[in-house]
From TrEMBL:
Keyword Magnesium: no
Identification of the protein by name: Nitrate reductase
Required co-factors: [4Fe-4S] cluster; Mo-bis(molybdopterin guanine dinucleotide)
Keyword annotations of the record: 4Fe-4S, Iron, Iron-sulfur, Metal-binding, Molybdenum, Nitrate assimilation, Oxidoreductase
Positions of the 4Fe-4S Mo/W bis-MGD-type domain: 4-60
Family the entry assigns: Belongs to the prokaryotic molybdopterin-containing oxidoreductase family. NasA/NapA/NarB subfamily.
Organism encoding this protein: Defluviimonas salinarum
Taxon lineage: Bacteria, Pseudomonadati, Pseudomonadota, Alphaproteobacteria, Rhodobacterales
């Protein structure tokens, strides 16, 4: 490892999980540079990572607990939270309370939150903003592989001869992985890149072929591919012994009638390229996941890789990239309402028994809890009476955000743990708890290719702020479970998590980090990035090259899927298809990235991409304001007239909130429509009407 001065930690933003080195800059601040030894980035950084040091100021930080808007001491706040949650459970049952947490949390934070809700409160009502990020991938993985397993690694993108990017603006949303792909293509021009995206994004600059597919048509395209694989004799018959359901999946693919919006010659070129290239990686992200048929889209992609045996070998496989820095760690600890820790299954009595015994838990839910959109609907209807929101901003980011904001405002008891008191959600809290942020606490995160990295503390927590795991443990103790939440440091939590993973792996689960169960403080401090599994059974690398899936019979399931269009209909009143997403230099609701002036220079205000033909027809002039209205809400955005979007479709970024631009809350426009299996909202295919905005 390079002998570099400074603290090695992990970037606070996306799921690439880049290593950074933080050192004093000699002027009283810090300098951040890429860690040359981290396997995710090997020294590279993107604009957001490079600006991390600019986001460390204490301006606006929440420095003490607040009860009813007034500063309070920790004892009073913790007693109030524990007391009100305990009273609510006693009066209305455990399902009357809920936690809504975040893929920004460290694994140790997440583990304690999940343990408290599922094992001790006895409800599965803990869900995460990761529901908005990759829940469809989780569901697709589980029904194909038996577990939520990412088969491949980042190296596969570099070793492939064809990389297909589906619904992924990698250049802006996972920039360092994109940089690696650019470098691989420069070194090996034979590497081909295909992008499948209704928009001509920055990523398309690298593409040999861009398929501007109709919104929601991915299943139709990948069913065409699967049918062609079968018709051309490209099925890997030797690998097929590891599969179930192939005949049904191929029959469904052959019966596919859904349109793609693509010219036949482009489809033919794609089919020829995919089928004719053995080393192919299909990368997918939010354009696949954030859909009312996201799980089926994932299955359609997995089916093609399974049928051809192109999975788990160097340069081959389906590969989902996660949005958040610890979306993957949250999946590992069971931080979604339909999962248990260590990829154990909530519906499986043996798994529940294992977890209950291991935790010495008084309770264990027997059915899944509420998924994010359902959870806030239950809040609105008064079924959730005590709600704890940790490190996330649902009043701005969930679909139908105005209704979510009103639901939180009307909830009997709302606790928010955050860095700032000014987010749209924090303003609604009865109790505000000051949380330690990036650089102020220790823990681990897992990136998109299963690499576990340390986040390390290099700053004292300001004021009275505490790490989330410590706040949650205190509440657990005060609710009556002192032994179960007697954690004094994050390494104690990781050790427990690792020991549990060994038991889960012994029952056929994939997630196994049991080698970390004996880590002492010094080894935890020194922990270098490592890819799970990390155990005597198996170490790092890829899954499934030789079969060996985590289903009861060890075979993967190819699930027959049929295409369905977006659930939200366009019509004469709402004729435009609204796509939402990220921009290059901002992160989520800008609570951190919005503090770095240079990041604001890229795109500094909420905007709407609209095609020139539509702009002319509606009298919308470049850089003028547009009123955007859906069935759920309304926003005022700046017109960005561009042929990067197709006629009839518009795109708006999701970052701005009431804190920064009250009229620019795009979450207010998104319908609360979800995938019936994954519960992930359809954030990329709304229906809106546009008008030039005129000040009354
Ligand atoms: Fe951070 Fe992601 Fe950029 Fe890497 S690519 S520096 S993890 S934001």
């Amino acid at each position: 490892m390079t002998d570099a001065p400074g603290i090695r930690t992990t970037c606070a933003y996306c799921g690439v999980g880049c290593g950074v080195i933080v050192a004093p800059d000699g002027a009283g601040g810090f300098a951040v540079r890429g860690d040359p030894d981290h396997p995710a980035n090997r020294g590279r950084l993107c604009s957001k990572g490079a600006a991390l040091a600019e986001t460390l100021g204490l301006e606006g930080r929440l420095l003490a607990p607040r009860i009813g808007g007034r500063d309070a001491v920790w004892d009073a706040a913790l007693d109030l939270v524990a007391g009100r949650f305990g009273e609510t459970i006693a009066e209305h049952g455990p399902d009357a309370v809920a936690f809504y947490v975040s893929g920004q949390l460290l694994t140790e934070d997440y583990y304690v939150a999940n343990k408290l809700m599922k094992g001790f409160i006895g409800s599965a009502n803990i869900d995460s903003n990761s529901r908005l990020c990759m829940a469809s991938t989780v569901a697709g993985h589980r029904r194909a592989f038996g577990t939520d397993t990412v088969p491949g690694t980042y190296e596969d993108l570099e070793e492939a001869d064809l990389v297909v990017l589906v619904g992924s603006n990698l250049a802006w949303c996972h920039p360092v992985l994109y940089q690696r792909l650019v470098a691989a293509k420069a070194a090996r021009p034979a590497l081909r890149v295909v992008t499948i995206d209704p928009r001509r994004t920055a990523t398309c600059e690298l593409a040999d072929l861009h398929l501007a597919i109709a919104p929601g048509a991915d299943v139709a395209l990948f069913n065409r591919l699967l049918a062609a694989i079968a018709d051309r004799g490209a099925v890997d018959e030797a690998y097929a012994v590891h599969l179930e359901g192939m005949d049904g999946a191929i029959a469904a693919a052959r019966a596919e009638t859904g349109g793609t919006g693509l010219p036949e010659r482009d489809i033919a070129a794609f089919l020829d390229l995919w089928i004719g290239t053995e080393k192919v990686v299909t990368v997918f992200s939010q354009g696949v996941n954030q859909s009312s048929n996201g799980t089926d889209k994932v299955s359609a992609i997995l089916n093609c890789h399974l049928a051809t045996g192109r999975i788990g070998r160097p340069g081959m496989g389906p590969f989902s990239v996660t949005g958040q820095p610890n979306a993957m760690g949250g999946r590992e600890v069971g931080g979604l309402s339909n999962m248990l820790a260590c990829h154990l299954e909530i519906e499986n009595p043996d798994h529940r028994h294992l977890l209950r015994t291991f935790w010495h838990a008084p309770a264990m839910p027997e059915k899944p809890g509420l998924k994010a959109v359902e959870m806030f609907r239950a809040v609105a209807h008064g079924r959730i009476k005590a709600l704890w929101i940790i490190g996330t901003n649902p009043a701005a980011t969930l679909p139908d955000a105005d209704a979510v904001r009103d639901a939180i405002a009307g909830c009997d008891f709302v606790v928010v743990s955050d860095l700032f008191a000014t987010t749209d959600t924090a303003r609604l809290a009865d109790v505000l708890l000051p949380a330690a942020g990036w650089g102020e606490k220790d823990g681990t995160v897992t990136n998109s290719d299963r690499t576990i990295s340390r986040q390390r503390r290099f700053l004292p927590a300001p004021g009275l702020a505490r790490p989330d795991w410590a706040i949650l443990s205190e509440v657990g103790r005060r609710m009556g479970w002192p032994d179960a939440f007697d954690f004094a440091s994050p390494v104690e939590i990781l050790r427990e998590h690792a020991a549990l993973s060994g038991h889960a792996a012994a029952r056929g689960r994939d997630f196994d980090i049991s080698d970390l169960a004996a880590l002492d403080e010094a080894a935890y401090d020194a922990l270098a990035p490592l890819r799970w599994p990390v155990s005597a059974r198996r170490t790092g690398g890829r899954f499934f090259a030789d079969g060996g899936f985590f289903t009861p019979n060890g075979k993967a399931w190819m699930v027959p899927v049929v295409s369905r269009g977006p659930a939200t209909a366009t019509d004469d009143r709402y004729p435009f298809r609204l796509n939402t997403g990220r921009i290059r230099d901002q992160w989520h609701t800008m609570t951190r990235s919005g503090r770095a002036p240079r990041l604001g220079r890229h795109l500094g205000e909420p905007f709407l991409e609209i095609h020139p033909l539509d702009a002319v027809r509606l009298g919308i002039r470049p850089a003028h304001l547009v009123e955007v209205e859906s069935r759920e809400g309304r926003a005022i955005l700046r017109a960005l007239v561009t042929d990067r979007v197709r006629p009839g479709e518009v795109f708006a970024p999701m970052h701005w909130t009431a804190e920064h631009a009250p009229a620019g809350r795009v979450g207010a426009l998104v319908a609360p429509v979800t995938d019936p299996i994954s519960g992930q909202p359809e954030s990329k295919a709304g229906a809106v009407v546009l008008r030039p905005y005129r000040v009354a």
